[in-house]
What does this fold into?
Amino acid sequence: MPRIRPGRNRSKNTNRRAPLLLSTMAPEDFNVRPDEVKSIACPDCRTWRRIMGEKVLKIREHCVSDKVANGEKHTLCPGTDQVVEIDIDVRRWQARQNHLLRDAMPQDNRRAAQQFYKPLPAPAAPVSRIKAEVTLDTTRQSYLAHRKGCIRCVKGTHCTDGAILARRYVLALQKEPARREAREELERQEQRTARKQAAPTVRKAHWAKHGGQEVEKANNRCTERTSGSLSEFRGLGLPMLPQDIEAHDRRQAELGVKYAEKAQSAA
It folds into this structure.
């Protein structure tokens, strides 16, 4: 199937009029969008015609009347081959036309460039999936409340949610000793911190109660040293020599002989 191509104006003839400037026409009487076929409302017959050409733009040849097929006479319009000159900023013109089209559009047909939909609220999570503070009391109360209102949890059988709650209660029972020990350790640490913070206040109160002249008298009191003590810090003097000097020398001599024999055997 042959490809239909748009017609081109190969004629160099013009209607010998001055070029038609688009700046002198109403913005809605022509269309020069980059991605569309250029067209214009002929100033003479006020019908929309194509603008032909690439370098030299001219209005395409057309008749005054569109009823030639009905038997009327074929009469060329004086606006045929009218030179058209684009002397406007196409981008600004296009932006203005788009704005006018949006304003002229009925309110019911207007839509934003991006649609925003209000999200539907998510369904509430079941009790078995609520992530709250897990304690022995809360897990026990949740499990008993579920067993009371569930008809599928009978004796030793559980439904899906009941099994989850029961497993959570058993895990809480197993972790309770470690949790209790951690709480006690935390309480002891808080008590130690409180005592450290209160220590300066306690010392001030103790000094205010027992300080003053009594402390000064105790510091100035001098006591006599006990006999045989070198100083008030060391206590009694200790003997530096062995009690039996002869036995000590004999033992040292025996050890020297043994060490000499062992050295000779090793060599």
Notes: The first helix runs from residue 90 to 104.
